[in-house]
Amino acid sequence: MRIFLAPMEGVVDFTLRELLTGIGGIDVCVSEFVRVSGSLLPASVFHRLVPELQQGGKTLSGTPVLLQLLGSEAGLMAENAARAVELGAPGIDLNFGCPAKTVNKSRGGAILLNEPEVIHQIVSAVRRAVPADVPVSAKMRLGYLDKTLAIENACAIESAGAGTLTVHARTKTEGYRPPAHWEWIARIREAISITVIANGEVWTADDYRRCQAVSQCSDVMIGRGLVANPFLARQIRADMPLIMPEQTWAELLPLLSDFHSRVTQDLSIRHVHGRLKQWVQMLSRYYPQAKDLFQLIRTETCPEQLLNLLQKEQARILAA
Questions:
Q1: How many domains is the chain partitioned into structurally?
Q2: Is a pLDDT exceeding 70 seen at residue 243?
């Protein structure tokens, strides 16, 4: 069993990757997508989005970070994949699942699921462009409007030379609405011989077990579930059916303070509040304490005051 941290643009950046992998239980990360359009990107773009390239392609806890590319021009995708590997990427992942309208309008992400032949060209070009010992993987949804091309797209990815395929078990039009159609992952797994990773609606260890049983995949990629409950990977490995928010909230608070300090250093002041509020709001799915904290920070924008709120919450927990 391997647990992958999913790419989530604007959410799971290098700061959150660092913190989440430091908790333990995550085997591999996939970066936010690097958009390829019209040119060979300079090293600065790769380093900005995936700074782990400058530390051996891993987070400080030693978790490898695969670099994800998004684009529709096979030649350019290949050139940029080669450059990413030269810069230290331990593997290349290809995005055929992003549902964002702005991305799809530019023939990127999930829209390409309407063109299996283009997907094959991209994967094939990238596979030829990077050394044989560098893994090439892809992530896809079940389709754009419907699932009619799901098997064909998976076969195109396999025949083009990818070694691993992650399947988000919904179409683009289904977005992130439950349920995830794990049974379709099982169909894809039966149709191809490369490793298939299941993705979609894994929020608890119980969800993982059900996903494993239905999809027939032992490997899982988790995005929102790990952001909402940073201890989920550990809980899956320990076979814990439920989270214990009263125990893990105390462990989580120092991470929130660390997160605040890091984004204060890395982002402009006007973005710090939004990033902290975003994570706390996602944590509120499982932590009632996060709901209370969110109410406190939602109107506070001064970074120093935000830090004071976090420190006061930590002091309250320690005194309890």
A1: 2
A2: no
Q: What is the C-alpha to C-alpha distance for residues 214 and 208, in angstroms, rounded to an integer?
A: 10
One domain, residues 56 and 167: yes
pLDDT at 274 over 90: no
What are the pLDDT digits (tens) for 223-239?
A: 999 999 999 999 999 88
Give the domain CATH number at 284. Answer: 1.20.225
Q: Is 98 a catalytic residue?
A: yes
Q: Where is 266: in which H helix or E strand?
A: helix 245-266
Among 98, 211, 217, 302, which one carries the catalytic annotation?
A: 98
- 1/202 Cα distance (integer angstroms): 15
Q: Which domain holds residue 258?
A: 245-319
- Residue 81 parent element (H or E): helix 74-86
Whether residues 110 and 201 fall in one domain: yes
Domain boundary among 197, 214, 237: 237
CB 241 within 8 A of CB 275: no
What does the pLDDT look like over 44-61, one tens digit per residue?
Answer: 999 999 999 999 999 999
Point out the domain boundary residue: 237, 253, 272. 237
The pTM is what?
Answer: 0.93
Nearest CA to 232 out of 214, 248, 218 is that of: 248
Q: Same domain for 60 and 137?
A: yes
Q: Do 153 and 121 meet the contact criterion of CB atoms below 8 Å apart?
A: no
The CA dihedral of 228, 231, 235, 237, to the nearest 10 degrees, is 120
